[in-house]
């Protein structure tokens, strides 16, 4: 019996010993885990995000350029990421994301206990356990991390801690939105907003169910499930997402089958600063913002970074009008370019006309020195002779054509001459009352031609300068559009108005019309009348008025400026003409409405600039003069349908406008520059057309004049604008000042003669 008792006692001792050992091990293990979590949260295993970091995670957001009608027309970014609110996400995408990535997202507090235990016991073979909150933590604060198991465990614990903190800091909807904003979908697209634009050319709200499923499928691995490179794999992954949605009762079984049968339909377009809408304007704005950030600091005194601070730049550009302007320029320049190539066919020095070999060599050499090739070879310490020799070696290249890019083989020197053939254009449209720029087209293709012919390029304006002379005459000499003046031979002798030798202007048709009104003279663009007017006012008065109209270029104080021997930008010309439409008040062109930071706080609002230039009566008198141009002058083809010489190049003709239009064509010497300035009461648009080099030009007025080269762009653009009723482009009369003191109605229709012996219904036939 004693032996049995001793054995029982020993057995109890063993059990107690192991119990104590177990609980000691368990306690120390638990304390160790808790300490591990505590040390990790203190940052002993690597830095952890602070409260401020959680409040404002560095999300590296792209700056968005937003049109006046709320469309994102471009971005500045190093990483193309745009921030969305939860309300901006489509319901289908949210449901697909939760069903696929974290089915219990709305139940846990950052860590899914059931999923974690399942993953531990199955050693990860039955799915992972990362919640959306953990995945967001990983995306925001440490990325993929290490593949080494001990470090991986530390990383996972840090994810848990950050996920719990995120759950305390943000609502579930905010976490979903943040996750959708930080994921990299490839092709320079970070976040759902950028991905929707890149792969489907849509804003997220407009995504369909299957498109949402495609993007959610990419969350697993955007490199593998890239719809451009792997459409079959993407389709399979999309169908898995749809199956998960059906499993979660978010869609019906029949809906799942219908969506799974759909093909992968993309509208893929990489977002690039060289492509897309308003490219020239966006580059002009970028240069402006470079200066803006030096003058406007953050509250803490640091500089804004337009490439990562997520600014929202609200512009005055209207995306619809911008689209119409780009379409008009593209349609007409493509048409006119065909004629230019025809004209140059037998020109051995094409596209240059009537210049010497020495002048040609100078142009070509300068073009070589301005090229990227020259700069790159110069950095390689190549000699000038070696660089020039390289321009004569044939090489493969891709070139611009109006039928799309084309691969070819030619020498770089030949490519320079090829590109010199292309006609360029600049267009700007502005509201005269506000100065708001609504459309800006600086050239025909920004990828190949970066020079901006709206804000950068000042070109000779030709007869579009004449209204400034007429306005000066009306103001200084108290003349009216109905006053008569003799169109005949005229000379300003040497010594008068700083003329260094006798100056005798001649009309373009080499004929004289005798007595004409000012309205007839401007409609016919009569040179002798403009010369006589500037002789009476003096060129100083004209230059002074032009400066008041906002023209920034230096204007020579010479009578010859009356015929347009002056270089002015399209931007300045539009602003100057807008002064006439705005009753004599100059308003500086405005392209910004406001700038907001990523939190939506307004950090900048420009102050409009304006000043009085002319009284209302004089401004209206100039408008009436300019209306004569479209009624009986060089702009009358805007109203006709009879055609004429070269009408196959009047793109969009017949235009058949019946509303009041004030305008002026301009053609410079040798047809190097063609202009048209067109105005209706609430929109002023200027168009310039010409080659990069002034010696590259049409040989005749038929195609080189402003009425053929530039006016069709305006006509095409305005037809599109008028067809869009939402734009509310005016067809009304220009506002007539009360108690107008200047005679502007030069022709009074005779009174109707009534024969009282006839019935009232027949009186119309007696009108005279």
From TrEMBL:
Places the protein is found: Cell membrane
UniProt signal peptide: none
First-listed, main subcellular location of the protein, grouped into a coarse class: membrane
Pathway noted in the entry: Cell wall biogenesis; peptidoglycan biosynthesis
Segments passing through the bilayer: 21-45
Reaction equation(s) it catalyzes: Preferential cleavage: (Ac)2-L-Lys-D-Ala-|-D-Ala. Also transpeptidation of peptidyl-alanyl moieties that are N-acyl substituents of D-alanine; [GlcNAc-(1->4)-Mur2Ac(oyl-L-Ala-gamma-D-Glu-L-Lys-D-Ala-D-Ala)](n)-di-trans,octa-cis-undecaprenyl diphosphate + beta-D-GlcNAc-(1->4)-Mur2Ac(oyl-L-Ala-gamma-D-Glu-L-Lys-D-Ala-D-Ala)-di-trans,octa-cis-undecaprenyl diphosphate = [GlcNAc-(1->4)-Mur2Ac(oyl-L-Ala-gamma-D-Glu-L-Lys-D-Ala-D-Ala)](n+1)-di-trans,octa-cis-undecaprenyl diphosphate + di-trans,octa-cis-undecaprenyl diphosphate + H(+)
Domain (Glycosyl transferase family): residue spans on this chain: 71-245
InterPro entries associated with the record: Beta-lactam/transpept-like, Glyco_trans_51, Glycosyltr_51/Transpeptidase, Lysozyme-like_dom_sf, PBP_transglycosylase, PCN-bd_Tpept
Keyword set, alphabetical order: Carboxypeptidase, Cell membrane, Cell shape, Cell wall biogenesis/degradation, Glycosyltransferase, Hydrolase, Membrane, Multifunctional enzyme, Peptidoglycan synthesis, Protease, Transferase, Transmembrane, Transmembrane helix
Pfam family, one: Transgly
Residue ranges of domain Penicillin-binding protein transpeptidase in the record: 428-682
Keyword Coiled coil: no
Family: In the C-terminal section; belongs to the transpeptidase family.
Protein name (Swiss-Prot/TrEMBL): Penicillin-binding protein 1A
């Amino acid at each position: 019996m004693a032996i049995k008792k001793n054995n029982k006692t020993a057995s109890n001792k063993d059990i107690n010993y192991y119990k104590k050992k177990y609980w000691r091990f368990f306690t120390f293990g638990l304390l160790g885990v808790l300490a591990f979590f505590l040390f990790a949260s203190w940052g002993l295993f690597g830095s952890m995000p602070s409260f401020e970091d959680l409040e404002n995670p560095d999300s590296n957001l792209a700056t968005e350029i937003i049109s006046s009608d709320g469309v994102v027309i471009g971005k500045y970014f190093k990483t193309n990421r745009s921030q969305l609110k939860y309300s901006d996400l489509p319901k289908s995408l949210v449901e697909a994301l939760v069903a696929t990535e974290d089915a219990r997202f709305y139940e846990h507090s950052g860590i899914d206990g059931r999923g974690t235990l399942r993953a531990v016991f199955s050693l990860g073979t039955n799915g992972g356990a990362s919640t959306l909150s953990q995945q967001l933590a990983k995306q925001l604060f440490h990325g993929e991390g290490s593949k080494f198991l001990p470090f991986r465990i530390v990383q996972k614990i840090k994810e848990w801690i950050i996920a719990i903190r995120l759950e305390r800091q943000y609502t579930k909807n905010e976490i979903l939105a943040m996750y959708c904003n930080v994921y990299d979908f490839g092709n320079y697209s970070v976040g759902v907003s950028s991905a929707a634009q890149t792969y489907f050319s849509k804003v997220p709200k407009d995504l369909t169910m299957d498109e949402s499923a495609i993007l959610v499928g990419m969350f697993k691995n955007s490199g593998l499930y890239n719809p451009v490179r792997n459409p079959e794999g993407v389709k399979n992954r999309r169908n898995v997402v749809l199956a998960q949605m059906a499993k979660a009762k978010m869609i019906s079984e029949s809906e799942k089958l219908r969506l799974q049968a759909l093909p992968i339909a993309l509208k893929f377009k990489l977002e690039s600063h060289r492509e897309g809408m308003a490219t020239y304007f966006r580059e002009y704005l970028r240069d402006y913002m470079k200066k803006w950030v030096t003058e406007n600091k953050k509250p803490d005194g640091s500089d804004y970074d337009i490439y990562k601070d997520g600014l929202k730049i609200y512009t005055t550009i209207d995306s619809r009008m911008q689209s119409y302007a780009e379409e008009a320029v593209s349609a007409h320049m493509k048409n006119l370019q065909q004629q230019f190539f025809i004209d140059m066919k037998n020109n051995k020095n094409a596209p240059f006309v009537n210049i010497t070999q020495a002048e040609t060599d100078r142009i070509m050499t300068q073009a070589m020195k301005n090229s990227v090739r020259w700069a790159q070879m110069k950095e390689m310490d190549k000699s000038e002779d070696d660089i020039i020799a390289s321009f004569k070696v044939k090489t493969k290249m891709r070139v611009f054509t109006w039928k799309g890019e084309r691969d070819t083989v030619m020498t770089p020197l030949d490519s320079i001459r090829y590109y010199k053939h292309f006609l360029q254009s600049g267009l700007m449209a502005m509201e005269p009352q506000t100065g708001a720029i609504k459309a800006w087209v600086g050239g025909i293709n920004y990828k190949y031609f970066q020079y901006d012919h709206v804000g950068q390029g000042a070109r000779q304006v030709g007869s579009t300068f004449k209204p400034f002379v007429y306005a000066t005459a009306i103001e200084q000499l108290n003349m009216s559009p109905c006053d008569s003046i003799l169109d005949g031979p005229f000379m300003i002798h040497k010594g008068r108005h700083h003329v260094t030798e006798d100056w005798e202007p001649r009309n373009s048709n080499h004929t004289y019309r005798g007595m004409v009104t000012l309205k007839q003279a401007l409609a016919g663009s009569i040179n002798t009348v403009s010369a006589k007017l500037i002789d009476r006012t003096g060129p100083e008065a004209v230059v002074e008025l032009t400066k008041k109209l906002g023209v920034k270029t230096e204007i020579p104080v010479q009578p010859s400026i009356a015929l347009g021997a002056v270089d002015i930008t399209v931007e300045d010309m539009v602003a100057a003409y807008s002064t006439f439409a705005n009753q004599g008040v100059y308003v500086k062109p405005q392209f910004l409405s406001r700038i907001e930071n990523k939190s939506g706080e307004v950090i900048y609002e420009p102050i409009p600039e304006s000043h009085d230039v002319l009284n209302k009566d004089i401004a209206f008198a100039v408008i009436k003069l300019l209306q004569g141009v479209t009624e009986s002058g060089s702009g009358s083809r805007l109203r006709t349908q009879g055609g004429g010489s070269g009408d196959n190049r009047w793109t969009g003709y017949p235009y058949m406008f019946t509303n009041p239009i004030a305008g002026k064509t301009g053609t410079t010497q040798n047809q190097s520059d063609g202009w048209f300035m067109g105005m209706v009461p609430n929109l002023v648009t200027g168009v310039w057309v010409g080659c990069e080099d002034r010696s590259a030009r049409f040989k005749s007025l038929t195609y080189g004049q402003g009425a053929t080269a530039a006016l069709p762009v305006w006509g095409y653009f305005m037809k599109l604008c008028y067809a869009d009723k939402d734009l509310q482009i005016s067809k009304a009369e220009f506002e007539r000042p009360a108690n107008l003191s200047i005679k502007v109605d030069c022709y009074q229709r005779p009174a109707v003669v009534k024969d009282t012996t006839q019935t009232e219904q027949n009186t119309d036939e007696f009108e005279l």
